[in-house]
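Blinded run. Sample ID left blank on purpose so nobody reads anything into the name before looking at the predicted structure. Input follows.
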Amino acid sequence: MNVSRFFGSTNREAMRQVRMALGPDALIVSNRRVNGGVEIMATDQTAATPASVQAIDAGPEPAAASAGRPAAMLRPAPAPPAPARPAAGVSPADVMQAIGSMQGMLEHGFDELLWGAQLRKAPQAVSLFQKLLAMGFSTALLRAMLKRLPEALPPRAALQWCREELVSHLPVLRDEDALWAPGAVLALVGPTGVGKTTTIAKLAARCLRNFGPGGLVLITTDTYRIGAHEQLRTYGRMMGVAVHVAQDRVELARLMDAADPGARILIDNVGVSQRDRYVGEQAAMLAGLSRPVQRLLVLNSASQGDTLDEVARACTSDGGQRPVGCIVTKLDESPRPGPALDIAIRYQLPIHYASTGQKVPEDLVRLDAEAWVDQALSPVQPASTLFSPSAADLAALMAAPSETPWARQPAAHGSLLPGLLALAGTGAARLDEESWRAACVQLDSSEVYSGACRLWRNAVGGKSHDASWRPLAAACNELAAFGQQRMLAVHDSFGVLPGPSRGKLHATVLMGGGGRALASTWQQWPVGSGWQASDGTSGPQAAPETERLRRQIYALQRQAGARTVVHAFDFPAQGLLRELGERSIQWLTHCAGSVRLQAQSCATTAAAHAKTLDYRCMDSVLSRLDLATLQGVPLGSVALWLAEGPVELARRGSPPLALRHVAVRLIDRRDGRTIKSLHGLSNVSHGQAELETLAAWLLVRMEAREAARHLPSAWSALEPSAGCRGSGECAAVAVQVALAAWQALQEGGPLLDALAGLAGTSGRRNGASLTAATASAALIRLFAAKDLMEPRA
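Blinded prediction complete.
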């Protein structure tokens, strides 16, 4: 017999292909799940040879004869002298279908066994399975992905591997111009209440904005819902576009024929439940018209994954033209977009746009795969885990082994460790294998280290840009893992570059509220007498400080996830502070004591006003800090005194700008001297941040400047290896490496010991022997050794 193979995303889709190709009497040879869908082997009943049919019709062999060869019944047997008749009422098709079902059950059982074996080999897959399941991804997708998870990966690297897999397999709109080609016809389909009419209006506004007025036709077939066409007509009048109503297929065809051949047509369809028989009729209505209609499936991201799967399955198997993609709506109402992304991957429906609200046209955006996956993988609030399995639930399914494979180094790599450390110097040679592993685990435990290592590896490998690593998204995920929500964006000069020009490098550095270094999102470096920035802007000569600061702030604000950021910087021109306040951007500025203020309608200065405030000793703030020292003094030897009062900034012709004045004094407990006095102004309200929080942010901003001392050595260490002096690549790597080196000095632990060994010194918690001149170079050596020692997947 001639056996044909059919593949579909679901069993129903594959069976539909079988019926279309072989008819309703096709014989199913096998039915099994494969990566990405279902595979069915089938043949036409008329193509079966007499010998094969005879083998199927033959009665069961005696037990003694068949026990030694259980697979004999699956192979054609030689014809006996007298053909046996089939049992009454049993056809060959029934027997063949029963065999296929039995084979499918066996393959499913083997698949379960292989999945269990994979979990035992890679126990980190258990936590990943639970985490990704809580984020809305289906078990089918997670099994297919985690079966290929490399065994020897630490938890952070395993999550990064999953992220890269999702990014590589998530289909998105690649060419928007091709979608809106002249004469294109787009039709939105989907269930009721998913936002098709509002999305049509947003698409129309986007088309008019990109291609100008004229050449756009709006058609609605929604004559069932009360006021549906009136809603679209209202949008049409606002945009100056006529809206037509099509009662049936004939009228729809007439409207399309009457439109200009180059006109773009948008069709709003009536919402149909995925279980309604009208799904097929609607698909037939849009098929076979004078112009090909591209259907876009509208997915409500607030719906459950099972509901979205049912919608996608119904729409892709309704007999009409397969949807060319999907639009995800109501992202502002959904705790996570994971289910919608899961549907897009499994059904291969490229995501064209995302609807983030009701505003037309502002709330329609186009995201790339990295942005979608980062949004899906952002940690959810604890309350949203009510409908997800807990660790105790998964523990009932399997017990994780006591030792994780990623903590073990392969013997071949482990044997190289003594030689590599000996080449690094006498201090490194004293490190044993356990210390090395502990240092590598600490490297993988924080985003500031893993981000620096990733950027360094790309620079050495010749990659000019790593789009898969997004500093702001990585920082948000890092903070969420520590239970924090607010972060500080420190905008400042990040040190002087080595060399005769002595040019300044400016950077935006993200810090946790307690002082944990996270990532750098923006850099500006000198180019001749001008400058160039990582956001693509440049200038032929040095720009004013206020203008540079404005560019820094808005470069960060344009990114998704920047709403939780508080911007920290030196006191700028007053106009910028007012501008940021009008845009609801929160900020904290460090000001000198000579800055003029108004308090109680009287002119004063920050230093004079601070003397009138009541100070309180609030050492509890120090416990919030993830810092080892303040201005070089150990944290335990510092006493913290705080005061606060309302002030105003006055400007002629403008109303007073009401602010909070925070005064901080650091006192050395050992001798009573004043270590530092700080003045800060902020537009953050009391309800959003208390005095202790503002004081902690002011201290973090002060200490973040210490990280700039590591920049020259990081830049010099990168110069011979990366070969990218003066480029944005080298600036991004140098700033991130300097941040990581500073964080290692603050954090201590086995990583600091390893860095001290690589630098030829003995590390201590306060970093007295491991200096800014040596820490960055030692960290890069550690990256190089780790890169050689890591097992390759």
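Unblinding after everyone has recorded impressions. Residues 65 and 72 are 10 Å apart (CA to CA).
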